[in-house]
Amino acid sequence: MTRTVDDLRNEIRVAVGRYERIESTGFTKESLAAICDALDHDVETNPFPPKAEMRAGIRSKVDDLDDDPDSADRPFRKAELETLEATLRDESQ
């Protein structure tokens, strides 16, 4: 069975120590900061930077993600979530 975007987001959340969400929703700033931390990308947490800035940091740390600055203004797409999830899975092993 193929994984949905929601499934992938939840797998990523769990991989970085966050909780699964029942409803369909994008990443919160806290979740993005946890992903940044898991990828060794330093991010301020008080206050959190804008989501686009954290997404850009994540993109810069994952080889197969487009680090075009314009792509940071939008949420991760399914293929990007699959790449991110695989990267986090590989780093946890």
Automatic annotation (TrEMBL):
Regions of compositional bias (Basic and acidic residues) in chain numbering: 52-63, 71-93
Stretches the record annotates as Disordered: 46-93
Protein name according to UniProt: Uncharacterized protein
Organism listed in the record: Natronobacterium texcoconense
